[in-house]
Design brief:
mainly alpha
């Protein structure tokens, strides 16, 4: 009975080590994906900002995309 308990504890220890290693790999991959996504977002935001037309004085002009809705009586 004691030997069986030792075997179970050894197996649990091996599994614990395995899962901790897997968790570390997943966290590294997640950090890489976060960095890449963040970089892509900032590049897209910079590109979008560069396409906005601003007058000579630096003021931003917003152009309506659709006419105003009709007023209700």
């Amino acid at each position: 009975m004691a030997r069986e308990l030792e075997n179970r504890e050894a197996e649990l220890s091996r599994r614990d080590t395995f899962y901790k290693e897997q968790q570390g790999r997943i966290q590294e991959k997640n950090a890489e994906l976060y960095k890449m996504t963040s970089q892509q977002f900032h590049e897209a935001a910079s590109k979008a900002e560069s396409t906005i037309n601003t007058p000579q004085n630096g003021a931003c002009v917003l152009w309506p995309t659709s006419p105003d809705p009709p007023l209700l009586p």
